[in-house]
Write a structure and sequence with these properties.
Layout: H1 2-21, H2 35-66, H3 69-83, H4 87-105, H5 109-143, H6 150-168, H7 172-178, H8 182-207, H9 209-235, H10 244-261, H11 268-290, H12 294-303
Amino acid sequence: VVGYLLSIVVGAVLAVIFLYRENALSFDVEPVFQYREIFAFSIPLTLVASIQYFVSWTDILVLGVLVPPESVGWYQAAYQTSVVLDVVLQSANSIFPSVAAGLHESGQHERLNRVYTAVTKWVTYLTVLGLAFVLVYNEQILSIFGTTVQSAQISLVILAVGQTIAATVGPTGYLLMMTGYERLQVVNTTTVAVLNLVLNIVLIQAYGIVGAAIATGISFTVLNLLRLVEVWYLLGIQPYSRQYWEGGVAILGAVLVLLSGKLLPVPGLLQLALGGGFGLLAFFAVIWSLGLTDEDRILIEAVD
């Protein structure tokens, strides 16, 4: 808890420092607030964030009522590990909204589509690579938390697949928000929150922590497929292209390296580190040899 709080304090201090360096903090300027516009936009987003937070804890809360504490610990180890796969998408979400809003406001819809495609492609590449790592080394990963029970391994695989499906649709949620459909996001998250609660209550009673993983995985999938369909229907854009084959080749090469790492005559955790490191190197080596696409260059320009 202390470490977590310290990280928040350090982050806040760094934010103030960088804002000051950019001359974004000034006590000499009287701020002007457009209250109507601010609240019309921020209230739906606040509701979305609150509901999503509830969704992220529903499985743990229901498990706490229906299964022994030890099983909740096994599930939490699996869930928190699967969340690591969400890091790439969250990183993209930190820069994509401002880019998307600017392109949409200026009417550059074709460029927005290409940026959206490039972002989703790279998020998909890296998250699928992470999924491959989890599938190959799930037992070694869970051994870090002191458990290798089969139900925890199955839960980890299901949750990892759910996180990967969520990542492969890209930053669709933020795309809807930045193009004037933030209230639709409230409908999406509320619908999925109810579905998630019902599925957890039913499936946990039948299958324990594996049921919680199935319920959560289904919820992730439904939410993100809803967003994907809405982006296609409302904005007329979708993030997929034939260029994905390059990432498929790179991931296949990395998987072969990951599998080879399991043959190394070293302890499990060292296998984990060596296999993962060499697999990542193999992936980027193939990507580098294939070169950047036009969408990749547009993404770099947009971020700059």
